[in-house]
Design goal:
mainly alpha, disordered C terminus
């Protein structure tokens, strides 16, 4: 039985229909040659959340204007050389697509639209180059008209702010974080922990994307953008900290499964505080941090006496960080809910420091996407030029549009194929409207009444994530067919040729995409891992002290991207072998060890250098697809370095090096015994090396 539309779905559909009809009415009133471009554009830019419509509107307008200017320049300069013009358009579309894929913000729409807008203007305009300025101006007016109408209608009529939606997802992510924390402290099974980790990483990725649109929202939450970003930063950092806490606790547990007696009471207290959630006493976090500080002070002198002591010291430090993160998340959530801008001292630096805009960028896949667009456009244009095909312009336009639309997907082919299927399904509707309705309507209200039975139900399905792609494909098929033809004197022959051109363009886009850059989620997951391993090797090879902000941001972003791809890949990827959170911990530990280099002195410096060289060689081998385990020599290097650190007077850098070294050892050698070590002596190192 079909699902009845919800109130929000019906409102979205009616608003989208109203915006498209408003754009169509104004386009008819202005006498624009292709008024249905305005109607189609209004649907393309509509979104159930008003903030997302507005956040992209400015960039869409900017991209349309930039693309129209480029189209005019290219046509005027190269209209007498169709081969060069085709190549120039392909290079422009590919170049804009390349930049768009490397800009993972709403601004990317400007570059993408600047690319395929050139195709929308140049290819239909080459038949009458003397009118290219009028053609370009009309196309810009039609597209901008659709953008403006959609933005105004969705912002004024019953706007649906993203504030409640974002807060709901934020609360769900906080609950997931608390559940994962309890699982880690209670040492639940591996499968549950991996499931919780992937769920939380996916939640944070979705929150991060939604927050980019928050400044454009209509709700009061838009004034809390900086605290929202700070909260997400703290939640994201929970990923490596919590996995470290779980790992250290597992290493320190006694044979009966109980934690060490000296830390068991504070572990139980932290667990109870987390389980209490928002109802917990706000002052309890401060008391827990004080208890952990006293435990850390008691352990400082013993932390270099052996790996068990170092691991216990690392556990206490990480558990303290875990409490701080949960405290900050709860405080920030309460401030966001109340709209209080006056943040306390321990939260204000987090809010003032904007969420780091350093993302994982895949230049290789962006280049292959650009190559697919260039190859598709030049192939269709070559066939068009050689055969004189009257509908070649329609095919070339569709190639430009569809190689751009789905370029951000790992495998764009299924999305393009879905559009192809539903474009074919839309042809009877398109023929009915073009050949029956448009020639006979004598008033705009009658046209609206004829379009409503098709567009309003489709708009309801657009509001549903499960059916959005199919519904948009039908709307695009009908609107695209009407947009490509002169609606005043369309006939069956021109409709058939135009439809064949559309289908040929979509098929070409699908084929060149499959040939150039169609990859699966499993392949993308492995590529993400190899990129991370290369970056870790580069960090270990650095001679100076690296800044960890950029690495941390990129690796956290990769964790989210990897989690989404693992969910898509299902069982085709071995999740036990893929642990980007572990790699993140390794990188952060390397940064911490590099920072301790100045205080290690002449004795510890060479030991650190040997260890970092070995780590770099190991991760270089991993990135070169040689999945060998970490060499045993690294264990000796770690032993030497811990003994050397024991000769350094206690200080923050020295303590941080102990924590980082214990974490690095657990990451690379999780099954190594927690042995005691003798004092550091160079002669002992030499004897060990000879042995």
């Amino acid at each position: 039985m079909p699902k009845l539309p919800s109130f929000d779905e019906l409102v979205f559909s009616l608003k989208s229909f109203a915006a498209s009809m408003l754009a169509l009415y104004i386009a008819f009133g202005m006498g624009l040659p292709r008024p249905f471009w305005a109607m189609l554009t209004a649907y393309v830019v509509s979104s159930p959340l008003s903030g997302t419509v507005r956040s992209k509107a400015v960039y869409r307008v900017a991209g349309t204007v930039a693309g129209s200017i480029a189209a005019l320049v290219l046509t005027v300069e190269l209209v007498n050389a169709p081969e060069l013009l085709s190549l120039a358009v392909g290079l422009w579309v590919g170049g804009c697509l390349f930049v768009s894929l490397l800009d993972r913000t709403p601004r990317s729409y400007a570059f993408m639209l600047a690319g395929y807008t050139v195709g929308l203007i140049v290819f239909p305009g080459v038949a009458s180059p003397e009118a290219i300025f009028d053609t370009g101006l009309a196309r810009v007016e039609e597209i901008i008209l659709g953008i403006v109408c959609a933005t105004v209608v969705h912002s004024v009529i019953l706007p649906r702010g993203m504030g409640p939606v974002l807060l709901g997802k934020l609360d769900a992510a906080l609950r997931d974080a608390e559940r994962w924390t309890l699982d880690a402290l209670e040492q639940v099974g591996t499968d549950a922990r991996l499931r919780d980790r992937h769920k939380m990483a996916a939640d944070l990725t979705e929150l991060r994307v939604m927050t980019t649109h928050l400044p454009y929202d209509t709700s009061e939450l838009r004034w809390m953008t900086r605290p929202m970003r700070a909260l997400q930063d703290r939640m994201v950092y929970l990923l490596p900290v919590l996995t470290a806490v779980h790992d250290r606790l597992a290493a320190l547990r006694r044979p009966d499964g109980a934690p060490p007696p000296d830390v068991a009471p504070v572990v139980a207290a932290v667990r109870d505080w987390i389980a209490a959630g928002a109802a917990a006493d706000p002052a309890e976090a401060g008391r827990l941090i004080g208890r952990l500080d006293r435990l850390e002070a008691a352990e400082t002198g013993e932390s270099t006496g052996g790996w068990e002591a170092a691991t216990r010291f690392s556990f206490i430090r990480r558990l303290r960080s875990l409490v701080e993160i949960h405290r900050d998340c709860r405080d920030l959530r309460a401030r966001i809910a109340s709209g209080d801008h006056a943040l306390p001292d321990h939260l204000d630096p987090l809010a003032r420091k904007r969420s780091r805009g350093v993302f994982h960028l895949d230049h290789g896949m962006a280049a292959w996407s650009a190559a697919a667009a260039l190859l598709g456009i030049t192939t269709v244009c070559a066939f068009w030029i050689l055969t004189g095909w009257s509908s070649g312009s329609a095919a070339a336009m569709m190639v430009a549009v569809f190689t751009c639309f789905f370029a951000s997907f790992d495998d764009p082919v299924p999305g393009i194929r879905l559009f192809l299927v539903y474009t074919l399904a839309s042809l009877p509707l398109s023929a009915f409207y073009l050949l029956v309705v448009l020639p006979s309507f004598d008033s705009f209200p009658m046209l609206v009444l004829c379009l409503a039975p098709t567009l309003v139900p489709l708009g309801i399905f657009v509001a549903r994530p499960a059916t959005m792609g199919k519904a948009m494909a039908l709307i695009f098929g009908v609107g695209g067919s009407l947009s490509l033809l002169d609606t005043g004197n369309g006939d069956f022959a021109s409709f058939l040729n135009s439809s064949i051109g559309q289908i040929a363009g979509i098929v070409t886009a699908m084929l060149v995409t499959r040939m150039c850059r169609s990859v699966g989620a499993a392949w993308s997951a492995r590529r993400l891992l190899h990129v991370g391993w290369r970056e870790i090797a580069d960090l270990a090879r650095m001679r100076g002290v690296p800044a960890n902000d950029g690495f941390e941001s990129r690796m956290l972003d990769r964790v989210g991207l990897l989690s989404a791809r693992l969910a898509q890949a299902g069982g085709s990827v071995d999740v036990d072998a893929i642990d980007a959170v572990r790699d993140l911990r390794v990188g952060l530990n390397i940064v911490e060890l590099q920072r301790a280099r100045p205080v290690l002195g002449r004795a510890g410096g060479p030991a650190l250098e040997r260890l970092l060289r070995g780590v770099a060689a190991h991760f270089r081998a991993l990135s070169a697809k040689r999945p060998d385990p970490a060499p045993a020599e690294l264990l000796d290097s770690m032993d030497n370095l811990l003994s050397a650190i024991g000769a350094v007077p206690p200080c923050p850098e020295r303590n941080g090096a102990v924590v980082a070294l214990a974490s690095l050892r657990r990451s690379l050698f999780p099954d190594a015994a927690l042995v005691a070590l003798p004092p550091f002596q160079e002669t002992m190192h030499q004897e060990r090396a000879r042995a």
